[in-house]
Amino acid sequence: MKPPRIVPFTFAAGGAAALMLAACGARPQDDAAKSAAPSTFSAPSAPAANALCSTFARDCAFYACLEAAHPCGSDGYALGYGAKYCARFMGQTKLSERGNAWRNATMACLQSALVPIADLAGAVSCRTVTDSAFASHARCYTQPGHSICALPMDDIWTILRTLDADALSLRAANQIRSVLSTCLDPADGVAAR
Predict the structure, then answer these.
(1) Hey, what's the signal peptide range on this chain (predicted)?
(2) pLDDT at 54 exceeding the cut of 50
């Protein structure tokens, strides 16, 4: 199936349109990025018991540290979502220079949002980890200076091709709505560039 034809818009509106198409189930055919990374992850050797996950920030090892600190298993956020998509995006070779800058800034933002949870001593529920992580997604995707709203359409399609169906859950649909709102709002969309 070919991606639907998108009438030319500004980058902000075009990116928003691609996100909307993804939310409605439009999926490009190219699955090369998906096959580049395994679909499940196991945590590498656990960090020392007193290691702070903040020392692993800006690296996919952060998610192994998060899992070691607050184990939720392969279906939990750290391994089932964070580590999986971190590895896929870091292995993605089709992003432009702007796309790579967006990816790096987004990874740093997503991980920074989880550092307080990851470095928290004591038990933290898997739901708290997941809720905290997803609460930061839309903000990190559209942060000023590195917003998905300002990426070229080729990058938007590359990003969408990197995702699995789990990225189109009801929770993700709410994030897509928030990202679209930011991208389509003239004040936010301009500020997010």
Answers:
(1) 1-28
(2) yes
Q: Which domain holds residue 130?
A: 11-191
Using only the alpha carbons of the chain, give its radius of gyration. 17
**Taking 60 as the threshold, does the pLDDT of residue 173 lie above it?**
yes
Does 87 map to a domain? Answer: yes
121 pLDDT exceeds 50?
yes
| Nearest alpha-carbon partner for 82 in 35, 126, 16, 32 | 126
Two tokens at 16? 């928003």
pTM of the model: 0.72
The number of distinct structural domains making up the chain is 1
Does some domain include residue 5? no
List, for residues 5-16, the tens digit of each pLDDT value.
Answer: 222 222 233 333
Whole-angstrom distance, CA of residue 78 vs CA of residue 75: 8
Residue 114 and residue 179: Cα distance in Å, rounded? 20
- 159 inside domain: yes
Residue 3 maps to a domain: no
